[in-house]
C-alpha cells in the first residue's frame, strides 16, 4: 500500500488547519506556506501520475479496512490526470491571488483555498460513493467562503444563490445515495458496479430512479442545461482568482459523471442501455447553445466569461454523452484544455479591470494579448488546443446517429463565441483608443491616450501560467492524446478497477467492451 | 409504520420545496432546513425499517438493524447543520450589505438585466463619471 496516495488530501488539510490556527493574522507567512504547499502538491501529483502511467491501479485502504466495508482511495490514470491538472491550476491561481493582492481583501483566503484543494483532490481520488458526497461538501463549503471573499452586496447575494442551489443539490445527492444503498446494499463504487449488474428484476426501476437523481446532482455541479442557472451569476461575481479556480469545480461534476456512468451505470447494464447517454447528449447540446447565446449577449467581460464556461461544459458533455472510447478520449482532452482556457480568461479579465481602474482607458498590449489568447482558446480557434479538442469531438461523433445535429450545433456555436468575444474585445481594447469616442478620462490635453494603470509583475507572470500550460499542452498534443486515450480505455474497461479494489475474480461476468 | 414515515418524508419534502421557491431568503433557508430533515429520515429508512432491534449483532437479540444508514444520517446531520449555519450568515451579510433580503439578483422589481456598468454607446455622450469597473468592495 503506497501512502503517497492519501497525500493530496492530507497535505492541504493539515496546511489549512495550520494556517488558520497558527498564522491567523500573518498574511506573509500564510502566503509562504500556501505557495510551498501548492508546489509540493504539483510534485506529489506528478509523482502519482508517473506511478499510474504504466496502467496499474493503486488502492489505498483507509484504516486498512477491507473493501467493500471500509473507504478506499483509488488511483488510476483518470484520477492522476485530474490531480495533476488541479495542482497545476492551483499553483497559478495562488500566485495570481498573491500578485494581485486579492488574498488581502478579506480574511482566510489561503486556508479556504487549501480546503478547496483538499475537497477537489479527495473527490478525484475516492472510490466510495458516500465519501464522494463528503468530499463534495468539503469543496463546496470552502467554495462558499471563497465565493464571498472580499464582500460586497452583489457578491454576497449571488453567493447566497450559489449556496442555496448547492444545498438543494446536496439534499438530492443524499436522496440518490439512500435509494442506491437501499437497492445495492453497498456504497463502494466497485462493489456497486458488481451489484448493479446482478440485480433482481424488480429492483431495476428503483436503481434507475436513484441513478437518475444522481445524474441531476452531477449535472448541477457540471452546470448542464436545466440546472445551469446558478453559474453565470456566481462566476461573474466571484473574485477573479476564485473564478479561475472554479474552472475546475464544474469539471468535478463532469469527472463524477464520467466515473459513475461508465463504471457503475455503464451502457452494458441491461436496464440502463443508452438511457443516460441520450439524456446527457440532449442536455449538453442545449447547454452549449444557451452558453453561446449568453456569450453573444453579455455586456460585461466577467459575465461573458461565465457564459463561455457554460458553453465549454456543453461541448465537454457532448463528448461524454457519445459514450464511445474515442468520445471519452476527446472529452478528456477537451476537459484539460477548457479548464486551462477558462482560468486564463478569468485572470486576463481581472487584469483588464486592474489596468482600467475606475476609467474606460485601454489596457496595455500584454493584457490585450493575454485576453486574445484566452478568447481564441475558449472559442476553439486554431492554433491552440481548443481547436484540436473540438476537432477530436467532431471526429468522434462521426457516423453516430446524431452526427448532423452535433456538427451543426458545435460549428454554429463556435462562430457565435468568436463573434461575441470580438464584440467585447474591440469594445474594451480598441474603442477607448478611438479619438472620436469622447471620454475625457481617456485622453490628456494633447489628445494622446492616457496609459493604463501599472500592473503588478507577479500578477502578470501568474496570469501567463494557464496560457503557457495550454501552449505546452498544444505542442505536446500527440503524446498527450495517446496518454488520454489510454486513460479512456482504462476507464471503460471497468474490470481492472473492480478487481483492483475487490480482488481478482470479483467481476464474475466481465462485460464486453463496446 | 412505513406509511406514516413515507407520509412524513413526503410532506416535509413538499413543504421544503415550496418554501425554497419563495422570493425571500428567510423562507428559502427554512425550506432547505426542512429538506435536510426529510432526507435524514429518508436515509434512515434506506436500511429498511426494523423496530426494537439493536444496530449491532448480538446473540441475545433475534436480529439486528442495518447500522450503516445510521452512520450516514449522523454524517448528513453534521454536514447539514454546518451548511445551514453558513447559509444563514451569508444571507444575513447579503441583507445588511444590500438592504434587501430578496433571493433573486434584480435590484428593482421588473429589472431583468443587472448591468451595473452601462457602456456609453453614442458618440459625444457625457462620460459616466461614477463608473466603478474595479473591485466592488
The main pleated sheet of chain A reads as: 2 strands, antiparallel
- How far from one another are the termini of chain B? 54 Å
Strand content of chain B: under 5%
Helix/strand order of chain A: HHEEHHHHHHHHHHHHHHHHHHH
Strand order of the largest sheet of chain A: 1-2
- Looking at the structure, what is the overall shape of chain A? globular
Mean pLDDT figure of chain A: 90
Distance between the termini of chain A: 32 Å
Keywords:
heterodimer; A: 514 residues; mainly alpha; two-stranded antiparallel ribbon; 21 helices; globular; B: 137 residues; 52% helix; elongated
Description:
The complex is a heterodimer of chains A (514) and B (137). The mean pLDDT of chain A is 90. By secondary structure, chain A is mainly α. Chain A has one domain. Chain A has a two-stranded antiparallel ribbon with strand order 1-2. Chain A has helices at residues 7-22, 27-52, 77-100, 109-125, 129-147, 153-184, 189-196, 204-222, 230-237, 240-246, 249-264, 275-297, 301-322, 325-356, 365-379, 385-396, 403-429, 457-463, 465-475, 477-493, 495-502; strands spanning 58-61, 72-75. In chain A, helix 13 (301-322) runs antiparallel to helix 14. Chain A contains 21 helices and two strands. By secondary structure, chain B is an all-alpha fold. Chain B has three helices and no strands. In chain B, helix 1 (2-20) runs antiparallel to helix 2 and helix 2 (25-45) packs antiparallel against helix 3 (68-98). Mean pLDDT of chain B is 78; it is low at 108-137. Chain B has one domain. The longest helix of chain B is centred in the middle third of the chain and has 31 residues, at 68-98. Chains A and B meet through helix 5, helix 6 and helix 14 of A and helix 2 and helix 3 of B.
Amino acid at each position: 500500500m503506497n501512502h503517497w496516495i492519501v497525500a493530496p488530501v492530507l497535505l492541504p488539510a493539515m496546511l489549512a488547519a495550520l494556517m488558520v490556527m497558527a498564522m491567523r493574522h500573518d498574511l506573509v507567512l500564510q502566503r509562504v506556506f500556501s505557495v510551498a504547499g501548492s508546489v509540493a502538491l504539483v510534485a506529489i501529483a506528478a509523482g502519482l501520475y508517473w506511478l499510474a502511467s504504466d496502467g496499474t491501479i493503486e488502492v489505498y485502504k483507509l484504516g486498512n479496512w477491507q473493501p467493500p466495508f471500509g473507504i478506499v482511495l483509488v488511483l488510476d490514470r483518470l484520477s492522476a490526470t485530474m490531480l495533476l491538472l488541479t495542482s497545476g491550476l492551483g499553483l497559478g491561481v495562488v500566485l495570481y491571488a498573491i500578485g494581485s493582492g486579492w488574498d488581502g481583501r478579506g480574511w482566510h483566503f489561503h486556508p479556504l483555498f487549501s480546503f478547496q484543494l483538499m475537497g477537489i483532490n479527495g473527490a478525484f481520488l475516492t472510490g466510495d460513493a458516500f465519501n464522494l458526497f463528503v468530499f463534495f461538501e468539503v469543496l463546496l463549503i470552502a467554495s462558499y467562503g471563497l465565493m464571498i471573499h472580499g464582500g460586497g452586496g452583489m457578491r454576497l447575494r449571488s453567493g447566497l444563490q450559489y449556496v442555496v442551489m448547492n444545498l438543494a443539490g446536496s439534499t438530492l445527492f443524499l436522496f440518490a445515495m439512500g435509494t442506491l444503498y437501499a437497492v445495492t446494499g453497498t456504497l463502494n463504487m466497485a462493489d456497486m458496479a458488481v451489484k448493479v449488474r446482478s440485480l433482481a428484476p424488480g429492483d431495476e426501476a428503483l436503481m434507475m430512479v436513484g441513478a437518475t437523481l444522481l445524474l441531476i446532482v452531477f449535472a448541477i455541479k457540471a452546470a448542464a442545461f436545466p440546472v445551469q442557472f446558478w453559474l453565470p451569476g456566481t462566476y461573474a461575481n466571484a473574485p477573479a482568482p476564485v473564478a479561475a479556480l472554479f474552472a475546475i469545480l464544474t469539471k468535478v461534476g463532469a469527472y463524477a459523471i464520467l466515473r459513475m456512468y461508465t463504471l457503475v451505470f455503464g451502457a452494458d447494464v441491461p436496464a440502463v442501455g443508452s438511457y443516460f447517454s441520450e439524456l446527457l447528449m440532449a442536455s449538453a447540446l442545449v447547454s452549449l447553445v444557451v452558453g453561446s447565446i449568453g456569450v453573444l449577449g453579455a455586456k460585461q467581460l466577467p459575465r461573458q466569461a461565465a457564459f463561455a464556461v457554460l458553453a465549454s461544459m456543453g461541448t465537454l458533455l457532448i463528448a461524454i454523452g457519445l459514450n464511445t472510447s474515442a468520445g471519452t478520449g476527446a472529452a478528456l482532452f477537451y476537459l484539460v484544455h477548457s479548464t486551462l482556457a477558462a482560468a486564463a480568461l478569468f485572470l486576463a479579465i481581472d487584469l483588464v479591470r486592474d489596468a482600467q481602474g475606475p476609467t474606460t482607458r485601454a489596457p496595455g498590449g500584454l493584457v490585450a494579448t493575454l485576453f486574445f489568447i484566452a478568447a481564441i482558446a475558449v472559442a476553439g480557434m486554431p492554433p491552440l488546443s481548443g481547436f484540436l479538442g473540438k476537432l477530436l469531438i467532431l471526429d468522434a461523433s462521426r457516423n453516430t446517429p446524431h452526427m448532423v445535429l452535433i456538427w451543426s450545433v458545435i460549428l454554429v456555436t463556435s462562430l457565435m463565441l468568436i463573434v461575441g468575444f470580438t464584440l467585447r474585445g474591440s469594445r474594451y481594447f480598441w474603442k477607448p483608443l478611438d479619438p472620436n469616442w469622447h471620454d475625457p478620462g481617456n485622453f490628456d490635453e494633447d489628445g494622446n491616450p492616457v496609459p493604463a494603470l501599472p500592473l503588478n509583475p507577479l500578477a502578470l507572470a501568474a496570469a501567463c501560467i494557464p496560457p503557457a500550460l495550454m501552449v505546452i499542452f498544444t505542442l505536446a498534443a500527440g503524446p498527450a492524446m495517446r496518454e488520454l486515450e489510454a486513460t479512456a480505455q482504462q476507464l471503460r474497461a471497468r474490470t481492472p478497477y473492480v478487481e483492483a479494489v475487490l480482488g481478482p475474480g470479483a467481476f464474475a461476468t466481465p462485460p464486453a467492451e463496446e | 409504520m412505513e406509511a406514516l414515515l413515507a407520509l412524513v418524508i413526503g410532506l416535509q419534502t413538499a413543504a421544503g420545496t415550496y418554501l425554497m421557491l419563495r422570493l425571500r431568503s428567510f423562507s428559502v433557508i427554512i425550506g432547505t432546513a426542512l429538506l435536510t430533515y426529510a432526507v435524514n429520515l429518508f436515509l434512515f429508512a434506506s436500511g429498511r425499517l426494523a423496530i426494537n432491534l439493536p444496530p449491532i449483532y448480538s446473540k441475545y437479540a433475534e436480529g439486528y438493524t442495518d447500522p450503516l444508514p445510521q452512520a450516514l444520517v449522523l454524517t448528513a446531520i453534521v454536514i447539514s447543520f454546518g451548511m445551514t449555519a453558513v447559509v444563514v450568515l451569508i444571507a444575513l451579510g447579503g441583507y445588511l450589505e444590500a438592504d434587501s433580503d430578496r433571493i433573486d439578483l434584480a435590484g428593482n422589481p421588473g429589472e431583468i438585466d443587472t448591468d451595473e456598468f452601462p457602456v456609453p454607446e453614442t458618440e459625444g455622450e457625457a462620460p459616466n463619471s461614477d463608473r466603478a469597473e474595479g473591485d466592488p468592495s
